[in-house]
């Protein structure tokens, strides 16, 4: 069954971000409908949400599937059309967000990033295609080392790229970085979820007056009604050490939360906004003193 294979792909993915995985999730949902398994859509949605509980687009898409099944389970074609429409709107929002984020890159910049974000990759690609000349510092991003993939992709585009260790980046930020640019797995009221290591990098830069930017979209805003599914996912201990000795416990967090207080700007489909304006629009937070 194709949908089962795609679901397992999402469950086992420790490298890609939310924007990539929602496409795989939509492909799986459509495959399920094509195979005539409409009654299994709620189970598919629940497994999808449990597979990547730190990624808002996945949680929001799962909640959408559950709602659509309740309303349209007797009409497979309408279900299919609603899924296609949802993903189409997601792509349009993401495209506009990337275009807005590209305006943050200027000639001569040294941009620091972390992990592998397809959104960050595409923003930098757009800037390169517009003729902007800049350099990028990438972190190794352990334990999966997905930052190496990003560094290889960027250098392959002709962008001058540097690769360093996760701790080594701190000695390079101050005095060299023009800005930090990160992708987003989820916008929470309390902060921004991304690959572990993002928060200390953002705090270090933000506290030194170096601009910290995130690129996301409204599909990454996690509403209160879906928060029950959310948790910060951790990885397997074997990714760090296969056979730890007695009394040694391996801790392998995948995500952390960056406070809005150290963020300069957030690029979404409506433009680049400051953190206070974003909180007010996304969560209705009253930011007036």
Q: Over all CA atoms, what is the radius of gyration?
A: 19 Å
Poorly predicted parts: none
**What is the CATH topology of the largest domain?**
Rossmann fold
Shape: globular
> What is the SS-derived class?
alpha/beta
Following the backbone from N to C, one meets helices and strands in this order, namely HHHHHEHEHEHEEEHEEEEH
CATH class term of the largest domain: Alpha Beta
| Tally of structural domains | 2
Give the CATH superfamily of the largest domain.
Answer: Translation initiation factor eif-2b, domain 2
Strand order of the largest sheet: 3-2-1-4-7-9-10
Number of strands: 10
Query: Could you give a short account of the major beta sheet?
Result: 7 strands, mixed
Number of continuous helical runs: 10
Topology (elements, then pairings):
Elements: H1 2-11, H2 18-34, H3 41-51, H4 56-72, H5 76-102, E1 110-113, H6 118-129, E2 135-139, H7 146-156, E3 160-164, H8 170-173, E4 179-182, E5 186-187, E6 192-195, H9 198-206, E7 212-215, E8 255-258, E9 265-268, E10 271-273, H10 275-283
Parallel strand pairs: 1-2, 1-4, 2-3, 4-7, 7-9
Antiparallel strand pairs: 5-6, 6-8, 9-10
Helix pairs in contact: 1-2, 2-3, 2-4, 2-5, 3-4, 4-5, 5-6
């Amino acid at each position: 069954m194709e949908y089962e294979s795609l679901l397992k792909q999402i469950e086992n993915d420790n490298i890609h971000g939310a924007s990539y995985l929602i496409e795989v999730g939509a492909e799986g949902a459509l495959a399920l409908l094509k195979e005539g398994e409409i009654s299994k859509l709620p189970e598919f949605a629940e497994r999808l949400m449990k597979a990547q509980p730190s990624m808002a687009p996945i949680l929001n898409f799962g909640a959408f599937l559950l709602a659509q099944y309740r309303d349209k389970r007797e009409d497979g074609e309408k279900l299919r059309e609603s899924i296609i429409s949802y993903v189409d709107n997601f792509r349009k929002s993401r495209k506009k967000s990337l275009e807005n984020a590209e305006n943050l890159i200027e000639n001569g910049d040294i941009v620091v990033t972390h992990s592998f974000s397809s959104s960050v990759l595409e923003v930098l690609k757009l800037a390169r295609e517009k003729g902007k000349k800049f350099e990028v510092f990438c972190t190794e991003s352990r334990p999966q080392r997905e930052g190496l993939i990003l560094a290889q992709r960027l250098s392959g585009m002709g962008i001058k790229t540097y690769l360093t260790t996760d701790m080594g980046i701190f000695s390079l930020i101050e005095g060299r970085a023009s800005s930090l640019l990160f992708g987003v797995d989820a916008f929470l009221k309390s902060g921004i979820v991304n690959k572990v290591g993002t928060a200390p990098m953002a705090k270090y830069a933000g506290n030194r007056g170096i601009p910290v930017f995130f690129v996301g979209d409204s599909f990454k805003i996690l509403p209160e009604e879906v928060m029950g599914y959310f948790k910060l996912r951790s990885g397997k201990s074997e990714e760090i050490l296969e056979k730890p000795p007695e009394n040694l416990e391996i801790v392998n967090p995948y995500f952390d939360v960056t406070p809005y207080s150290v963020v300069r700007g957030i690029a979404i489909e409506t433009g680049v906004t400051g953190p206070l304006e974003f909180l007010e629009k996304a969560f209705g937070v009253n930011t007036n003193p």
